[in-house]
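Quick one before lunch.
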Amino acid sequence: MKRDTIVANATPLIPSAVAIIRISGEDSLRIAKEIFTLPKDVQERRAYFGKILDLDKTVLDEGLLVYFKGPKSFTGEDVVEIYPHGSVPVVKKIIENVVKLGGRLAQPGEFTYRAFLNGKIDLTQAEAIAELISAKTEKASKAAVNILQGKLSKQINTLKNKLLELISLIEAEINFPEDVEEIDSKLIIDNLSQVKTQIEKLLSSYKKGSIVKEGIKLAIVGRPNVGKSSLFNAMVGYERSIVSEYKGTTRDFIEESLKINDIPVILLDTAGLRETSEYVEKVGIEKAKQKIEEADIILFVIDGSEGFTDEDKKIYDEIKNKTHIFVVNKADLIEKPLDIFEKFDNIVYTSSKTYQGIKELEEKIAEILGITETEDEVFINLRHYNLLKQAVEKIEYINSNLDFLLQNKEILMLDLQEVLSYLQEIVGQITTEDVLGNIFSKFCIGK
Ligand code: GDP
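Model of the guanosine-5'-diphosphate complex:
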């Protein structure tokens, strides 16, 4: 299919040492020859140093150019990359000239879209490029690279092949009933159960993936003066919230972003949760309650030197059904752990004064989140999740109607094809304009 030639800056338009301009399409080389001093016979995949020319042949800049002849290029088409100095007017002028010579400004994600259309990458890999570019942490970037390298595609393709095998056996039985033996129903049951188990494993990676990619919210909760603000500061690492000797000074709540074990965390210091008549305090408390609802994990703080007081118990009863860590603070003031705390799970002794236990607290958080150091983990995204969920539901439907379906193999085949279609949608073998538009419009220009 013939496509027009597109151009865009692949690096941001800001003053920098070097910029990259990418041109893709069958006119790439012809246009490049008009704006760059190239030899007649341009070799592919070779860096040329030369002058970048304006349309009147005056020199705009000097820099490098590389020609990637299709299909051995990112998009699969003829691609030219020009590396001028990162001068904003120069970069703009080069792009303008490419457009005047027959190119067109690329849409967001259009280079990657062409790579997808030309079969250089599948849809999961295209999504991984966007995820890699926007990754906030090393863990998130590693997870994206794993998908970019085809680790998710490989798993999906294995499942697809299993289903295809079943479908073709059933098809043969339907079409050639005299020549082909009836399929052992155990084979169908076993294969489907293997596919289901694998899909469920992938589904379970979604939650962890969103923790790694998006991060979590932690709320510090406890009665006044137990050391919440001090703990917040100790965790954030610098003085930010007001630490006071008087009760009830954290009127509202204070938020800070940090990273725990390379997981993005929003830490909230809430107002003391207690009955109060004072209006301002009340507003703070209401907001705190709302924030507690949104939190993924609650750090429930008590003052170790005072033990587990009735007021602590009241607050604890409010939060105990949410995922929480029992933080016994002011551990520097106590000689030995108090018996009363033994009944709590997930307990950590801390001191915001001496920093004792802060590291253990962070390790406990990582442990609760199930974040371990595994290199080749694959996390699915929401689109994959929804499709896999539909696939599992269809398999469950097949399982619960198996007797009927084994008697009516044409219908069974259609159901299996539906399961297959969800997997094909994940890798982009089946797509709609809407789905593609949604994925690629999230890219920035030049990707
Ligand atoms: P909040 O009302 O729960 O936010 O408590 P603050 O963080 O304002 O602390 C109340 C008081 O306890 C302050 O005087 C802090 O210096 C003190 N404090 C907080 N954490 C510790 C700790 O780990 N050890 C000791 N000895 N004092 C602490």
